[in-house]
Amino acid sequence: MKSVVIAQDNDVELQLDSALLFYRSEGTQYVYATQHSARVVNGLPTLLPGVPITLDQLAEIAEIAARKTSYRGFVHERVVYFAPNMLAWWIPACTRRVWFKSTDKIGERAGDARHPPLVFIVNRDSWSIFALRDNERPGPTTKLYTAPYYNVWENGEICVGNVTTPDAVNTASIKPFEDAFFRSRFTHPNNERLIHRRGGAERLWLDLLDGAEFPLDRLIDTKRTLADVIDNITTLD
């Protein structure tokens, strides 16, 4: 459990004032909420009789919280999905430098290589990457393909290792997340099937480091769309 720190610019005495109680019916998503005045009685915190909270009052509470927690600013042009503590964006096909430190034939090597169009999806707990067949902005129904990179699991989640990633999840963290991925040392495949071709990912990256075009037609279909993956991550969050 994370600790909570309450900070003030000057000395302020905090007193118990009120509490919100939420009731949920087991096996459903229905929630009932009440607000209670609270007092310290004989040295013990005590809840007084409560009243039901209206939808308008809940909306007001949510708005106040959003002012402190939600991102405000211009939306990055490559963002395709944005929610509190979750962000998805795409990268057009590009040439970018990569580093390897593996025990296979690639060994310790760095160089510029061509990359397919990509989608990154990040939230507080995970960091995933997928490839695209078409070099255009993806939508909810766009098919996602396996990103053929070392250190990426079969479900698209990236093995963080000792890589430092941004603390915040917002549009200002797009470049730091990209840099953290591409500037990391790719050490080993976490997925047996990263690409449809003889020699697998090892041969693929040896060719790409030698200047080959990226073979988009060899990408492996994940059988999932962008909306499928985001819905799944949202459900698990």
TrEMBL record:
Domain of life: Bacteria
Pfam family name, one: Prok-E2_D
The name this protein goes by in its record: PRTRC system protein B
Organism of provenance: Paraburkholderia caffeinilytica
